[in-house]
Amino acid sequence: MAGHIPYSFVLVGVGGQGTLLASNILAEVGLAAGFDVKKSEVHGMAQRGGSVASHVRWHPEQVFSPLVGLGEADILLSFEKVEALRFAEFLRHGGTAVVNDMAIVPVTVSSGTAVYPGDEHLAKVFDALDAELVMVPGERLAQEAGNVKAANVVLLGAVSRLLPLPEETWWECLAQRVPKKFLELNRVAFASGRAAVTKAGLKA
Amino acid sequence: MKRVLSGNEAIARGAWEAGVHVAAAYPGTPSTEILEELSRFPHVYAEWSTNEKVALDVAIGAAYAGRRALAAMKHVGLNVAADSFFYASFTGAEAGLVIVSADDPAMHSSQNEQDNRRFAQFARVPCLEPSDSQECKDFVAAAFDLSELFDTPVMLRTTTRTNHSATPVELGERTERAAKREKFPRDPSKYVMIPANARRRHPLVEQRVRDIAAWAEKSPVNRIEWRDRKVGVVTAGVAYQYAREVLPTASVLKLGMVYPLPEQLIRTFAAGVERVVVVEELDPVLEEKLRLLGIPCEGKSIFPLCGELDPTVVRKSAAAAGLPVDKPPVELSELPRPELPARPPVLCAGCPHRGVFQLLSKKKVPVTGDIGCYTLGLLPPLSAIHTCGCMGAGIGVAHGAAKAGIGERMVAVIGDSTFYHAGLSALANVAYNKANVLTVILDNRSTAMTGHQPNPGTGFTLQQQPSEIIELEPLVRALGIHHVATIDAYDVDGLEKAYKELMSHQEPAVLVARRECPLLPEIRRQWVPLHVIEEKCTGCGICFRIGCPAILKSEELDEKSRKPLALIDPDQCTGCEVCLQLCPHDAIPTRDQIRMAEEKQPASCSTPVTGGS
Fold first, then answer.
1. Which chain A residues are within 8 Å of B348, Cβ to Cβ?
2. Could you read off the pLDDT of A120-160 as tens digits, one per residue?
3. Residue B613 reports pLDDT greater than 80
4. Which of A14, A82, A111 sits opposite B340 (nearest CB)?
5. Looking at residue A50, what is its pLDDT?
6. How many Å lie between the alpha carbon of B343 and the closest alpha carbon of chain A?
7. Residue of A83, A171, B199, B558 with fewest CB within 10 Å of its CB?
8. What are the residues facing A97 on neighbouring strands?
9. Domain-by-domain residue ranges, chain A?
């Protein structure tokens, strides 16, 4: 794997969206690929529909901090659009934002005290960071694979395309977490996420 | 074999491998998963006790009986258990006794920020602090050994970032330990803390601290990592990881035991470096010790006292102090971003507390709250909670306000699990000292906030043993409270009627608002999403005012009012029917009406069963 810098991921979304499972799998994939790994997340109150973030780090030798610093994430994986904007500072200059094309409207918006920003802001913000923005229709692809709840597997598929690891490594870790009867569904979901990313790899 | 384990999983694994027999806790973020994990291992008795003090007494009793025992709690749990923590320090035990205190810097899910290393000092209890999951596992075992070696309880202090970070851990096997006693000890001079006995114990406890400090000088839990000698960092816990990341060239004294401290080792380290810097989260506990030893050092003059550390904070602070950082702090440019809508945690769709808060909000009564999901009743648009301090506080605070002669009728709200935890004795006080407080017990049959742990209202225990439910209404009546009603929390009119009746007496009253949390797996299966009939909706907005995340504003506007119509998100809606009881235009059909309509047109297929996501 390229370079001696650690790979750092920040996964964000809304409590209940499955970010914790995705960060677990990401940590396991790193370990299976021979890296030292650390993962950090927050449980409790935020899980009740609040903004949530998990951090995952891989390093060929040793990871110290379990938390990613601001401006240090190689990949920001956002399960929801406004959360991508909220946590954009974590992405390093030239990093990649993988954003699920999904809006979960906060109560502050539905009660009329705030406005949900338009999609054009995503491009502006990540342009300003000189970052790649990859939009993934997670729910749609998951639905096509057979179940809308596999959106997190679609998103992991997209992330996998950005990293130089064999697809099998990902799949082996995923398969351990998925009930047997849903293996095929998840394989399709993962593949469709992978295919949704046209340009493989990350910018230096 | 290495596995990625969270700190909590590693603590559980470590305790099991070390031969723990009894473990007790009350759920509390970030400590909850320790007992959940431990309960799944063989040869361990694990329970959710009714509160942290009880949990600690249970662990102490098991350790007196000669079996290794562990109690786990969040930082404020140790406030509840403090009385027991202090006597256990004086008595010691017959077998290893370990108390896990999981602190929550930054208050991710807590009412305050406190540094429980102070409790270790305060009670003269040795304290180990791991900095990753491997150390979580190793230090639990070390803690049990230390406990038996010095006849003392041992604290394992963690923070959210060690509890909820996951790192690779080498797994081991369990060492079975025979019970150290056949019979319960009859040794009053050691275990009966009347003044005469306690006076004899105190000097022994102080000597024990000196003995452990001497042990700590040689223990591998404390170590010096010599690198460049210009800067020497003294650190412990997760702060060690940030220091290593940000100051890679500095020498480090890594303290695995944060009380008592190894004075000689600290002096040796300080003498070997030019500039001593203490990197620690929250209180300057290590820094104060260095200063007492007369060692010039910097700590809180560089790093913040409040909140948690992270690489960004440590790098920025260290760079400003001229320390040799790995790279310059990141310069954040202003991003071209509109103001983002806040996304605070909310009462979930279908939350059975919503109807109660809607009512209390409407009645504009002063409401003292408590700790749980329902604390979220403070948020707009419901804005129905006016105080929240700690577990069980609400009922006593309402009682005090009533006795002070405030001209309003006080209402206290408390969850079922919190009621069993610390509300029961407060309600006994309301009953006996006769305050005209209305106590609303929000009985959702679960300890929901921390992830649906069982409690005495659920009828089963942590290890899935059936048990007798402690019913709330008979319990409350047994306290001598005569005005009591149990109402389905989804019944909006029923709640209001009962409320009015209970408020009509100037005496203690209790309303049990009962309905299972819809996120419980067996309830989830019964969800029936509702919908809005556009032709009937006028955009009046009444349903928006109950703060349900499943009720959205539609793009469609009402023709007359030009206000947005209501729209129900079928993925979130549970079908609780609270909104439709408030809708003045009958624009939301009931579950029964939906079912009948479906029976007439059995065209659409049901939602598929899911998995793997």
1. 48-49
2. 999 999 999 999 999 999 999 999 999 998 999 999 999 99
3. no
4. A82
5. 85
6. 5
7. B199
8. A76, A133
9. 7-195
Asked if pLDDT for residue B565 goes beyond 90, the answer is yes
Which range, of A9-13, B120-124, B195-199, B335-339, averages the lowest pLDDT? B335-339
What are the chain B neighbours of A141 within 8 Å (beta carbons)? Answer: none
| Nearest CA among A86, A18, A137, A147 for reference residue B338 | A86
Helix (H) or strand (E) holding B118: helix B117-123
Q: Report yes or no: B136 and B158 within 8 Å, Cβ to Cβ.
A: yes
User: Using 50, 70 and 90 to split pLDDT, how confident is the model at B190?
Assistant: very high
Instruction: Choose the closest CB to A82 out of B30, B132, B341.
Output: B341
Residue B408: exposure state from Cβ atoms within 10 A (0-12, 13-18, ≥19): exposed
Counting every residue written for chain B, the total comes to: 613
Distance of CA B86 to the CA centre of its chain: 22
CATH superfamily of A7-195: Pyruvate-ferredoxin oxidoreductase, PFOR, domain III (3.40.920.10)
Instruction: Assign domain B222-320 one CATH number from 3.40.50.2030, 3.40.50.920, 3.40.50.1460, 3.30.470.20.
Output: 3.40.50.920
* Phi-psi domain of B322 (left: phi exceeds 0; alpha: psi -120 through 50; beta: other): left
Its ipTM equals: 0.93
- Say which range, A74-83, B70-79, B172-181, B218-227, has the weakest mean pLDDT: B172-181
At B320, which amino acid appears?
A: A
Which CATH fold would you assign to the domain B353-523?
A: Rossmann fold (3.40.50)
B311-370 confidence digits (pLDDT tens): 999 999 999 999 999 999 988 878 999 999 998 888 999 999 999 999 999 999 999 999
Q: Domain coordinates of chain B in residue numbers?
A: 2-218, 222-320, 353-523, 527-600
Residues B161-168 have a mean pLDDT of 96
Q: Can you tell me the distance from the alpha carbon of B564 to that of A112, in angstroms, rounded to the nearest whole number? A: 10
Tell me how close the Cα of A132 comes to any Cα of chain B, in angstroms: 15
- Cα separation, B239 vs B277, in Å, equals 12
**Residues B580/B539, Cβ–Cβ less than 8 Å:** no
* Pairing mode of beta strands A36-40, B165-170: antiparallel
Nearest to B245 among A48, A64, A112 (CB): A64
The CATH number of B527-600 is: 3.30.70.20
The residue type found at A170 is W
DSSP B415: E
User: For B301, which DSSP code?
Assistant: T
Interchain contact, B613 vs A186, CB within 8 Å: yes
Q: Is residue A93 helix, strand or coil?
A: strand
Distance (Å, rounded) from C-alpha A70 to C-alpha A68? 7
Other Cβ atoms less than 10 A from the Cβ of A19: the count is: 25
Q: How far apart are CA B457 and CA B446, in angstroms?
A: 7
Two tokens at B370?
A: 């408590």
Tell me the two tokens of residue A187.
């394989």
The verdict on a CB contact (< 8 Å) between B545 and A111 is: yes
Maximum separation of any 2 CA atoms in chain A, in Å: 50
Domain B2-218 matching CATH 3.40.50.970: the answer reads yes
Contact between B343 and A183 using a beta-carbon 8 Å cutoff: no
